[in-house]
Design brief:
This protein is α/β, with parallel strands linked by helices and 189 residues long. The protein contains seven helices and seven strands. It has one domain: Formyl transferase, N-terminal domain (Rossmann fold), CATH 3.40.50. It binds 5-O-phosphono-beta-D-ribofuranosylamine. 5-O-phosphono-beta-D-ribofuranosylamine binds next to α1, β5 and α7.
Length: 189
């Protein structure tokens, strides 16, 4: 059994998809959710889904506390599912090629510091893109620069609002993210 820890800062719809998708898995266990935002919707989801959640602050995140929690829980893979802070070097070093992120655009477009959530969707609309999509990638110590694992795209219509773009992206995220991670964990045995 491989243990996954999910990091989230917001609503947690991707976290919920992972918990549901792997609920009956005999290979992947969603063991822990970690969150840096006491107002995040993912906190309620974790309670409802009965998955342990660790709430942490920036000081803990910068120390070895988080790596120790992950290692104490025998975590094998770290999945960022809407997590907004840059991953510190000590965590990247503790989980080489075992930290995966999802970004709501076709990286390298609309990536990097400050490009998250509605900022991404507004930029896609402002740039009059005709397509956008999602990127699943390995995480290194720079925002959104790790090796790309998977991308999926959708058409952007001139009439689309940033909210329309966000919705199209979430459909692809919920469809592909758990499946891609499952294949990855199986292939990296
Ligand atoms: C997703 O759009 C994801 O691409 C980005 O953050 C958002 C998280 O949404 N990294 P949710 O909290 O999983 O609903």
């Amino acid at each position: 059994m491989k243990n996954l820890a999910l990091f989230a800062s917001g609503s947690g719809s991707n976290v919920e998809r992972f918990v549901e998708y792997f609920r009956d898995s005999d290979f992947i266990n969603i063991k822990l959710i970690l969150c840096n935002n006491p107002q995040a919707g993912v906190i309620e989801r974790a309670k409802r889904l009965n998955v342990p959640l660790v709430l942490f602050d920036r000081a803990q995140f910068k120390s070895d506390a988080i790596v120790e929690i992950l290692q104490d829980n025998q975590i094998d893979w770290v999945i960022l599912a809407g997590f907004l802070w840059l991953i510190p070097q000590n965590l990247v070093a503790a989980y080489p090629n075992r930290i995966v992120n999802i970004h709501p655009a076709l990286l390298p477009k609309f990536g990097g510091k400050g490009m998250y959530g509605h900022f991404v969707h507004e930029a896609v609309v402002a740039n009059q893109e005709t397509e956008s999509g999602i990127t699943i990638h390995y995480v290194n110590e720079h925002y959104d620069e790790g090796t790309v694992i998977f991308q999926a795209s959708y058409p952007v219509l001139p009439s689309d609002s940033p909210e329309d773009v966000a919705k199209k992206g979430q459909v692809l995220e919920h469809k592909h993210f758990p499946e891609v991670v499952e294949q990855l964990v199986k292939s990296e045995q």
